[in-house]
């Protein structure tokens, strides 16, 4: 069934592309695509005459019992197209006891938009989602739960349902989405999407609400998503207007419509997408990469500082997760994380691995005999061409593609030694790092022909750029790390 659906979509898209080439830009205004073979889910597409490269997938509301797809759907097309933004309204199937239906329909819409990006004048790395009410919940589910390939680059939520606890949310949205799962506390928690926000991984968001919304309470819904985003350090804006109630969407009856459009327009204009030919750099690591203790770490941690130093010819993404280990038997193995799956899906040209600090704890290093094999597993997953014997040392592998060739293009891997542990906080042991972990890293780097960055030595004189725990760099230390790594990359 899925294969037939893909073939059908391919035929639709091929015919459409030929039509657009034959008739010119004026035909690029509006058309509809089936998302399912039976046509029960469709996507209405609005392409601007002068595309900016930005695109938005729209998700109407309706309490998961109907679709309000005019004022919360197609009505936005004119305003967005005038700004050069391609717009795609997904008329998804209602759950009717199966929440995978609406989720799958919106994900399918994202696949089509990104797969057709070149033909439609879209930057595939600048595709956002905009959801209204229950559609805002669905948009937040896609933003927090979907795989990297279907996750948006930015999120716009109009008066969203966020909580699946019907005591503090819209009762029928909760019941219709979860069905019998409404009785399962774990599902209620998991799909209350403020609980699913992840540092670095959840896209920037803009939330629009009215204080007098008595249908979806702002304080227990939209505000909780903003709070989770801010606590994670992720970028998030929130605009709350004094009146307007619920369900206004892009309707001209909303008393603050002009102010809302001005605010949303400025927020969209500020979304700087990476160049499509930028060299992709994936920063893999623990809390030091994550930016523990640095306020707004996604903007101020070492990967963010590295981005500033390297410039727009590079696209640096932070895949750090606090407390994680290289050891698969450690207390929190990195390769079990969503961040690891995201790093692979990112298809990097360059990978910077900085793990090992937490492995030095006695409770983790009791499995130290397996550190080498777990490090080699990570390397050969990133570089399958090295998986056989490790004897190639990278000499015969394909050159990393500067246009995002990713794993198929054999990314260049930099293996970083941990920075010194200036204090033994949390049982972190610098002697184990220096005398056991680093020698293994050096041997593995030699075996596979990887480049080492010796942060343990190069950062040794920067103990004054640390937080009081002696383990994590402060903002100055993050800058220093970025300078060291940028220097190695530029070589």
Protein traits:
491 residues; alpha/beta; five-stranded parallel beta sheet; 13 strands; 36% helix; 14% strand
Describe the model:
- With about 500 residues, the protein is of the alpha/beta class.
- It has 18 helices and 13 strands.
- The strands form 2 sheets. Strands 1-2-4-3-5-6-7-8 form an 8-stranded mixed sheet, sandwiched between helices. Strands 10-9-11-12-13 form a 5-stranded parallel sheet, sandwiched between helices.
Identify the strand order in the major beta sheet.
Answer: 1-2-4-3-5-6-7-8
Distance between the termini: 51 Å
> Averaging pLDDT over every residue, what do you get?
92
Structural class: alpha/beta
List the helices and strands and how they pair.
Elements: H1 2-23, E1 30-34, E2 42-46, E3 55-59, H2 77-82, E4 86-91, H3 100-115, H4 117-120, E5 127-132, H5 134-145, E6 154-158, H6 171-178, H7 185-190, E7 205-210, H8 222-232, E8 236-241, H9 257-269, E9 279-285, H10 287-290, H11 297-300, H12 302-310, E10 314-320, H13 338-345, E11 350-354, H14 362-365, H15 371-382, E12 412-416, H16 430-448, E13 451-453, H17 455-458, H18 475-490
Parallel strand pairs: 3-4, 3-5, 5-6, 6-7, 7-8, 9-10, 9-11, 11-12, 12-13
Antiparallel strand pairs: 1-2, 2-4
Compact summary:
The protein contains 18 helices and 13 strands.
């Amino acid at each position: 069934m899925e294969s037939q659906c893909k073939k059908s979509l391919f035929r639709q898209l091929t015919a459409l592309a030929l039509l657009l080439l034959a008739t010119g830009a004026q035909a690029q205004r509006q058309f509809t695509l089936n998302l399912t073979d039976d046509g029960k889910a469709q996507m209405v597409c609005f392409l601007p005459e002068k595309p900016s490269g930005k695109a938005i997938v729209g998700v109407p509301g309706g309490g998961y019992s109907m679709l309000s797809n005019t004022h919360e759907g197609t009505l936005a097309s004119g305003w967005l197209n005038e700004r050069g933004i391609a717009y795609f309204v997904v008329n998804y199937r209602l759950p009717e006891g199966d929440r995978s239906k609406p989720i799958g329909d919106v994900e399918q819409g994202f696949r089509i938009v990104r797969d057709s990006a070149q033909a439609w004048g879209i930057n595939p790395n600048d595709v956002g989602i905009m959801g209204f009410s229950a559609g805002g919940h669905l948009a937040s589910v896609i933003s927090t739960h979907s795989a990297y390939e279907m996750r948006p680059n930015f999120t716009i939520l109009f008066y969203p349902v966020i909580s699946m606890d019907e005591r503090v949310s819209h009762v029928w949205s909760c019941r219709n989405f979860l069905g019998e799962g409404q009785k399962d506390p774990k599902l209620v928690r998991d799909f209350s999407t403020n609980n699913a926000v992840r540092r670095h991984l959840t896209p920037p968001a803009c939330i629009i609400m009215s204080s007098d919304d008595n249908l979806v309470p702002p304080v227990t819904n939209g505000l909780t998503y903003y709070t989770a985003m801010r606590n994670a350090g992720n970028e998030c804006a929130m605009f709350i207007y004094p009146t307007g109630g619920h369900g206004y969407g892009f309707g001209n009856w909303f008393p603050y419509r002009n102010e809302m459009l001005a605010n949303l327009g400025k927020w969209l204009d500020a979304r700087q997408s990476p160049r499509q030919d930028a060299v992709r750099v994936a920063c893999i690591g623990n809390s030091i990469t994550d930016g523990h203790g640095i306020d707004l770490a996604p903007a101020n941690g070492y990967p963010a500082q590295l981005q500033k130093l390297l410039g727009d010819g590079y696209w640096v993404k932070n895949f750090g997760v606090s407390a994680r280990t290289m050891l698969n038997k450690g207390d929190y193995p990195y390769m079990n994380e969503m961040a690891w799956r995201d790093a692979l899906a990112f298809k990097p040209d360059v990978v910077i691995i900085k793990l090992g600090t937490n492995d030095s704890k006695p409770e983790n290093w009791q499995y130290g005999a397996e550190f080498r094999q777990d490090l080699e597993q990570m390397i050969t997953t990133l570089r399958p061409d090295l998986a056989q014997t490790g004897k190639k040392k990278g000499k015969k592998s394909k050159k990393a593609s500067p246009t995002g060739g990713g794993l198929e293009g054999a990314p260049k891997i930099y293996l970083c030694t941990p920075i010194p542990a200036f204090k033994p906080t949390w049982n972190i042991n610098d002697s184990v790092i220096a005398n056991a972990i680093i020698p293994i890293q050096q041997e593995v780097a030699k075996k596979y022909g990887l480049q080492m960055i010796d942060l343990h030595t190069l950062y040794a004189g920067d103990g004054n750029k640390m937080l009081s725990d002696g383990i994590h760099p402060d903002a100055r230390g993050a800058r220093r790390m970025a300078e060291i790594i940028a220097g190695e990359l530029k070589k």
